[in-house]
Write a structure and sequence with these properties.
nine-stranded mixed β-sheet; about 25% strand; six-stranded mixed β-sheet; alpha/beta; about 30% helix
Length: about 375
């Protein structure tokens, strides 16, 4: 039944129509405000109440990983024997795999080759492992590897190509000079660069171009991994410092280093961190090195509304390259108690010149 409006009702509405209109508008405004109060994230773009407005990425970085031996130096390393003995690809990184599982990106320096080639380079040490050893990296949760080092071609160009093919098959990104890697982590593009710093300042142009390439691919976070310095020395060289500072000047957000086989200090430069040497980690090149100290370096990067924030969310996890003291069993292990404190004290001493220190938990001290 349709409702009819008579003349009397129309006459009554005329003098009251302004009140009715204002009342209707007020009702609409009240409804809108109530919706905003109950659901503030529904207004416009993301706000601080919206989790998507803040993104964090935790990076773990470790030093030299050599999965294999030198055919001509079998008395110095028994990695292959340990592999056959354990019959478990998870054995080698067993004590650190849980740490890597909790982060967002784990980076290692892969020092050696995965190949069946027998064409050994004419050098003192040359490392190779079976291509099947790639399962050790995947079981460990290693997400990306640096190949810019002095053992990349240990068994000829073919061994380098074999290593790359094996990494690609396992879907582990690699980076070496102009061959940068872009990996998306938590919706953020991370640019990864490897530079063989043993060639010194001649790598300046290559470094600059690699960082530009990362920016051109829209990387919001850029990490440079350097193979540099002098072996078995605890202080960075002037060349290391120059390369590190250039990297940050060009746009790097983190610089990590390796090759000395021992730890070196940490520097903060223009609100960015430089880890001069991470030392060995899972190192098949020596059965019993005198210095087994190593570490896992971690940094958590924070992005707000897509912009990288400045903070000091870094952490050191002191480790030994072996789970036993009398030899290298190729099983890096976090340290505890007095041994943990000893390594932190050692690192603090090496970083003192840079004004950096860590507390007993491995967090950066605030002065």
């Amino acid at each position: 039944m349709k409702m009819k409006i008579g003349k009397q009702q129309i006459e009554w509405l005329k003098p009251h129509r302004n009140y009715l209109i204002f009342g209707f508008i007020g009702l609409i405004i009240f409804s809108a405000l109530a919706g905003i109060i109950c659901n503030p994230a529904s207004v416009g773009t993301a706000t601080e109440a919206d989790p998507s407005s803040t993104i964090r990425i935790t990076i773990s970085a470790v030093g030299d990983c050599t999965l294999g031996i030198d055919d001509c130096q079998k008395d110095l390393a028994n990695f292959d024997k340990e592999y056959k003995k354990q019959k478990d690809v998870g054995y080698f990184f067993k004590n650190v795999a849980a740490i890597f599982a909790k982060d967002d990106l784990t980076i290692a320096n892969f020092e050696g080759t995965l190949t069946n080639s027998t064409t050994r380079a004419d050098k003192k040490f040359a490392f190779k492992g079976s291509p099947s050893y790639i399962k050790i990296l995947t079981a460990a949760g290693i997400d990306a590897v640096n190949l810019a080092n002095n053992h990349t071609y240990d068994y000829g160009t073919a061994s380098y190509k074999d290593t790359i093919a094996t990494l690609k098959k396992a879907k582990i990104p690699y980076f070496n000079g102009p061959s940068i890697a872009i990996k998306e982590v938590n919706q953020v593009k991370v640019g990864l660069i490897g530079i063989n710093g043993l060639y010194g300042e001649s790598k300046k142009k290559e470094l600059e171009e690699a960082i530009k390439a990362c920016k051109n691919k829209k990387a919001k976070l850029i990490i440079v991994s350097f193979h540099w310095g002098a072996e078995h020395t605890y202080s960075p060289t002037s060349t290391q410092k120059k390369l590190a500072h250039w990297a940050i000047d060009y746009g790097a957000d983190l610089v990590i280093g390796h090759h000395p086989h021992v730890l070196q200090g940490i520097e903060e430069y223009k609100d960015k961190y430089i880890i001069y040497s991470l030392g060995n980690f899972c190192f098949g090149g020596n059965t019993n090195p005198s210095d087994k100290d190593t570490m896992i370096f971690q940094q958590t990067f924070t992005f707000k509304q897509g912009k990288l924030q400045t903070d000091d969310r870094i952490k050191i996890i002191p480790c030994s390259i072996s789970s036993v003291q009398n030899r290298n069993n190729y099983q890096p292990t976090p340290l505890a108690g007095m041994e943990k404190l000893r390594v932190l004290k050692k690192l603090n001493k090496m970083s003192k010149a840079f004004g950096i220190a860590f507390d007993n938990y491995g967090d950066r001290k605030k002065f």
